[in-house]
Amino acid sequence: MSSESYHEPIELISSQTRDLHRGIVSLIEELEAIDWYQQRAGACSDGELRAVLLHHRDEEIEHAMMNLEWLRRHSPELDDKARIYLFTEGPILDVEARAQAAQARDSSGAAGGTLGIGSLRRA
Description:
The protein has two domains: 8-74; 82-112. Helix content is 68%, strand content 0%. It is built from four helices and no strands. It is flat and about 60 Å long. It starts with 14 loop residues before the first helix and ends in a 15-residue tail after the last helix.
């Protein structure tokens, strides 16, 4: 029963949160299936069976990405972090450092390393 994985009484959990939970649990299940098929294919000595298992793995990857996209569309916080970290290059911690530096600049109101006072003057 899926309610066994809730950490709060289900009657206190909103419909939106329950749907997010369903999406997260489904993503977890798809990722587990990917891992299982990858392990089976890696251990398999028969080439044809390996190809079938990898085909199944790839279908599970498709399912996982569909779940992830649904979650991104329904969680502004996940969307924000996905836009920062996904499809980037270089060390992931460097991506984080750049994002934090940009956020600090944005929250301080600084523009181009200045206090932005020039923008208050009339032209």
